[in-house]
Design goal:
The complex is a heterodimer of chains A (about 675) and B (about 110). Chain A has 28 helices and four strands. Chain A is mostly helical and about 675 residues long. In chain A, the strands form two sheets. A two-stranded antiparallel ribbon of chain A has the order 1-2. In chain A, α3 (about 80-105) runs antiparallel to α4. In chain B, α2 packs antiparallel against α3 (about 30-55) and α3 (about 30-55) runs antiparallel to α4. Chain B is elongated and about 50 Å long. Classes of the chains: A mainly alpha (about 675), B mainly alpha (about 110). The interface of A and B includes residues 618 and 629 of A.
Chain lengths: ~675, ~110
C-alpha cells in the first residue's frame, strides 16, 4: 500500500500518455484524477500510521546499483517528514488535477496535460520518499523535467518555450552543485543512504577535505553544495529568476509546481540533510542570510508587479525565503510546518487567480480588471481567505507558521537572527501590502476592463469550486490543528527524521521573547493591509503623484523590473556566455586552433611545401645541375655531421622543433 | 715513385679539375657546348684518378677501366653532339635558356 501511494500516479501517467488517444480527454482526466484521489486517501492513512502512530516504514524494493562499495537500492522510507510531504503533495496535486479537468477542458491536449501532471506528482513522491541521495536525485531531476514539460505545455508560444528553457537551465545550475554534493558525500562516507550517512556524521566532525587545493571542513563543502542545489530548486536569491518566468505555463501548473511541490524540494532537502547542517554552523549562517534577503527582495518586488500571477509567484519566492532561513536557524520543523501550510494557501491563491483569469477571458494584467467582487463572489471569498492566510492574519494558517519563524529568528539572540527578523518583518509588511493591492485592483476598484469581458465574467464551475473550497478549509484551519503536533513545545513528531543539535535548539527561547517583538510582525501586517486599503481607496491621486515623481519613477522601475536582476543576468552573464561561446570557443578554438592544427592548416602547409618543391624545378639545366651538386654535398655532409646529431636523440626536442617550425610556417601564412 | 710520394698533390689536382668541370656545368648559362666540354673534363679527371690509383696500387684493372671510360666518353660526346645538331636544326639555336622557353611553349 505504501508503494501504491507512490506508483499510482505513475500508473495514471502511463494510462493517460500511452492510451490517451483511446481514452479521450475526459477518460484520461478521470483516470489520473481518481488515481490521485486513491493515493490521497492512502497518504492520509500513511500519515495516521507513520506520523500519528509513530511507526516509520522502510521498504527495500530492488538493488539498483551494486558495484563494490557503491550500493544503491530502490528503497522507500516513510518517516514523519516524508509523510507530511506526501500528504501535502497528494492533496494539492489531487485538487489541481480536479481543477484542471475544468480549467483545461477546452484544450485539445487535455490528456497530455493530465499525464504530465501525474508524472510530476510521481517524481515529487519519489523525491520525498527516497531513502538515499541518488534516488532523491531521480525525483529532483524528474520534477525539473516535468516543470519543463508543463511550463512548455503550450509549446507553440515562444514565451513559454523560453521560460521553460530558462527554468530547466537555471535549475540545472543548482542540480550540478547538488550532484557535486552527492559525490562528496559518497567520497567521504562511502554510502549514500540517509540512514548510514546520518549515523556516520558525528564521527566525521573534524574531517578535512581537499577541494580545489584548499582544505575545508567536510561538512562545509557538503553543506555548501547541497544548499546551492536547494537555491536552484527553491528559487532563492541568485537563482530565483526562473520562478516568475515560469508563470507562462497554465495556471494549475503554477499552482502545482511553483506553489506546493517543486519549489519546496529545496526546503525538504535542507530538512532531510539536517544531520549534516547541524555540524556545519558556518553554512547555516549563510543560509540565514540568503533566505532573509530572498524574503525581503521578493516581497518588495511583488509590491509593484502588474501581472496577477507574477505577484503570487513573487510571494511564493518570498515565503520560500522564510522557510529557508527558518531552516538556517536550525528550526527545520518550523520550516517544514510553514512549507505545508504555505502549500495549501498558495495553491488556493494560484487556483483562485486561475479562476479569475478564466472569468475575464484570460486577461492577466491586474490593471485591466477591477470590480469583480460582485461578478465572481466565490472566487473573491476564496482569494481573500488565501491572502489573509498568506499575510499571517491572526488565527489563520499563515499566522501560526510565519510568526513562529519570525519569533525563532528573534529568539536566536544573534546578529544574524536579528537581521533575518528585521528583513522578515519588513517582508511581512510588504506581503500584506501587495496582497491587499492585488485584491483591491482585481475586485474592489472600479471596473476597468472591457465591457464585453466584464459582462460575461462568471464564477467558475463545479470542479474549480470544489478544488477551491477544499483548499480553503485547510488554509483556515490546518495551522491551528497541526501547530501543537508539528512544532509544539517538546513535540516528538519528527523523531529521528530531523536532527537538531542541542546547542541550536531555541524554540524555548523563542517562546519567551518580548511581547513587543511577538506582536510586531502581526501588527505590521495589519498596518500593511489598512495602509494599502486606505491608499488605494482614498489616496489614489497621491499614489499616482508618488509614482510619477522623479524619485518615485526610479523606485517604481527598480521594483517593477525585479531589481534589474534579469537585466544584469541577461546583459552580463547571458551575453558574456553567448559571446564567449561564439568568439572564444567556436571561432577561436573550434574553427581556429583546431582547424589550423587539423584539416585546414595541415593541408595548406602540405600545399605550400609542395608548391615550393615544384618551384625548384625551374626547367634550366644549370639549376638541375646545381641541385644535384647541393644534394650530393648535403648527403655527404650529413654523413659526417651524423656524429654531432647523435647527441640530440631526444625525440621530444625534435618534436618541439618540428612544432615550432610548423607554427612559424602557419604564422607566416596567416600574416599574408 | 715520385707519384707515390705526392699522393696529396695528385689527388688535389684531380679533384680541382673535377670541380672545375662541375662548376663549368653549373655556372655556364649560355652555351651548351661548354657543358659538353665540361662533361668531357669530368670524365678526363676520373680517368686521371683511375690511372693514378692503378699505378699507386700496382693494379692493371684501373687502366682497363680507363680504356672503357675513354670509349664511353667518345660515344657519349658523339651522341651528345648529334643531339645538339638535331636540336639546332629544329630551333636554330643551342642556347640553354631557349631550350627551356621552347619546352614551356610546347606544353
Amino acid at each position: 500500500m505504501y508503494l501504491l501511494l507512490v506508483f499510482l500516479s505513475l500508473f495514471g501517467f502511463c494510462l493517460a500518455s500511452l492510451f490517451g488517444r483511446h481514452l479521450g480527454p475526459r477518460g484520461s482526466g478521470f483516470i489520473t484524477t481518481s488515481c490521485l484521489f486513491v493515493s490521497l486517501l492512502i497518504s492520509f492513512f500513511v500519515f495516521y500510521e507513520v506520523a500519528l502512530m509513530n511507526c516509520p516504514v522502510y521498504i527495500k524494493l530492488v538493488t539498483w546499483i551494486s558495484s563494490e562499495v557503491l550500493n544503491i537500492d530502490w528503497g522507500f522510507m516513510f518517516d514523519s517528514l516524508t509523510v507530511v510531504m506526501c500528504v501535502v503533495v497528494t492533496f494539492v496535486s489531487f485538487l489541481v488535477h480536479l481543477y484542471s479537468l475544468e480549467y483545461m477542458s477546452h484544450d485539445p491536449h487535455l490528456s497530455r496535460f493530465m499525464s504530465y501532471l501525474s508524472l510530476f506528482t510521481f517524481f515529487m513522491l519519489i523525491l520525498v520518499t527516497a531513502d538515499n541521495f541518488v534516488q532523491m536525485f531521480v525525483g529532483w531531476e524528474g520534477v525539473g523535467l516535468c516543470s519543463y514539460l508543463l511550463i512548455n505545455f503550450w509549446f507553440t508560444r515562444i514565451q513559454a518555450n523560453k521560460a521553460a528553457i530558462k527554468a530547466m537551465i537555471v535549475n540545472r545550475v543548482g542540480d550540478f552543485s547538488l550532484l557535486i554534493g552527492i559525490f562528496v558525500i559518497f567520497m567521504s562516507y562511502k554510502s549514500l543512504d540517509y540512514a548510514t550517512v546520518s549515523a556516520l556524521t558525528p564521527f566525521l566532525k573534524n574531517e578535512i577535505i581537499n577541494f580545489l587545493n584548499f582544505n575545508f571542513n567536510l561538512f562545509t563543502v557538503i553543506g555548501t553544495f547541497l544548499f546551492l542545489g536547494a537555491v536552484g530548486k527553491s528559487a532563492q536569491l541568485g537563482l530565483h529568476t526562473w520562478l516568475p518566468d515560469a508563470m507562462e505555463g497554465p495556471t494549475p501548473v503554477s499552482a502545482l509546481i511553483h506553489a506546493a511541490t517543486m519549489v519546496t524540494a529545496g526546503v525538504f532537502l535542507l530538512a532531510r540533510s539536517s544531520f549534516i547542517y547541524e555540524y556545519a554552523t558556518n553554512i547555516l549562517s549563510y543560509i540565514i542570510v540568503i533566505g532573509a534577503i530572498t524574503s525581503f527582495f521578493a516581497s518588495t518586488t511583488g509590491l509593484l508587479q502588474n501581472d496577477l500571477k507574477r505577484v503570487i509567484a513573487y510571494s511564493t519566492c518570498s515565503q520560500l525565503g522564510y522557510m529557508i532561513f527558518a531552516c538556517g536557524l536550525s528550526n527545520y520543523s518550523v520550516g517544514i510546518f510553514h512549507l505545508s501550510n504555505h502549500a495549501f494557501f498558495k495553491a488556493l491563491l494560484f487556483l483562485s487567480a486561475g479562476s479569475i483569469i478564466h472569468a475575464v477571458n484570460d486577461e492577466q494584467d491586474m490593471r485591466k480588471m477591477g470590480g469583480l467582487r460582485f461578478l465572481v463572489p466565490f472566487t473573491y471569498s476564496m482569494i481573500v481567505i488565501g491572502s489573509l492566510a498568506l499575510m499571517g492574519f491572526p488565527f489563520l494558517t499563515g499566522f501560526y507558521s510565519k510568526d513562529l519563524i519570525l519569533e525563532v529568528a528573534y529568539g536566536k539572540y544573534t546578529l544574524l537572527g536579528y537581521f533575518s527578523y528585521c528583513l522578515g518583518t519588513c517582508g511581512a509588511f510588504f506581503t500584506a501590502f501587495y496582497s491587499t493591492r492585488l485584491i483591491y485592483l482585481t475586485f474592489l476598484s472600479k471596473p476597468i476592463g472591457h465591457k464585453q469581458i466584464i459582462c460575461f465574467a462568471f464564477d467558475s464551475g463545479i470542479n474549480i469550486s470544489i478544488a477551491l473550497g477544499c483548499l480553503a478549509i485547510p488554509s483556515i484551519f490546518i495551522g491551528y490543528y497541526t501547530k501543537d503536533m508539528i512544532v509544539g513545545l517538546g513535540s516528538d513528531f519528527f523523531g529521528s527524521a530531523i536532527f537538531t543539535n542541542l546547542v541550536n535548539i531555541n524554540i524555548f527561547d523563542a517562546e519567551f521573547i518580548n511581547l513587543f517583538y511577538k506582536l510586531l510582525p502581526v501588527s505590521l501586517s495589519l498596518i500593511g493591509v489598512f495602509l494599502a486599503f486606505f491608499l488605494y481607496s482614498f489616496k489614489l491621486k497621491l499614489l499616482f503623484e508618488l509614482k510619477t515623481s522623479i524619485f518615485g519613477k526610479k523606485i517604481y522601475n527598480f521594483l517593477n523590473r525585479k531589481w534589474f536582476f534579469d537585466k544584469i543576468y541577461n546583459e552580463y552573464f547571458g551575453q558574456f556566455f553567448f559571446k564567449f561561446g561564439y568568439t572564444t570557443s567556436y571561432k577561436f578554438v573550434d574553427r581556429g586552433i583546431f582547424e589550423i592544427l587539423g584539416p585546414t592548416g595541415l593541408s595548406l602547409v602540405a600545399l605550400k611545401i609542395g608548391s615550393s618543391f615544384h618551384k625548384m624545378q625551374t626547367g634550366y639545366l644549370y639549376h638541375y645541375n646545381f641541385l644535384i651538386l647541393v644534394g650530393i654535398t648535403i648527403f655527404f655532409g650529413l654523413r659526417e655531421l651524423w656524429i654531432v646529431f647523435k647527441l640530440f636523440n631526444y625525440y621530444s626536442l625534435i618534436f618541439i622543433i618540428f612544432m615550432v617550425i610548423f607554427f612559424l610556417i602557419n604564422y607566416v601564412k596567416l600574416e599574408k | 715513385m715520385i707519384l707515390i710520394n705526392n699522393v696529396i698533390s695528385i689527388l688535389s689536382l684531380t679533384s680541382m679539375l673535377f670541380f672545375i668541370g662541375l662548376f663549368g656545368i653549373i655556372l655556364n648559362r649560355k652555351n651548351i657546348l661548354i657543358t659538353i666540354m665540361s662533361i668531357e673534363l669530368l670524365l678526363l679527371t676520373i680517368n686521371l684518378n683511375f690511372i693514378f690509383f692503378s699505378i699507386y696500387l700496382d693494379d692493371i684493372v684501373g687502366q682497363v677501366f680507363v680504356l672503357f671510360i675513354l670509349t664511353i666518353a667518345a660515344a657519349e660526346s658523339a651522341i651528345g653532339l648529334a643531339i645538339i645538331t638535331v636540336f639546332y636544326r629544329l630551333k636554330n639555336s643551342i642556347e640553354l635558356d631557349i631550350i627551356k622557353k621552347n619546352i614551356i611553349i610546347k606544353i
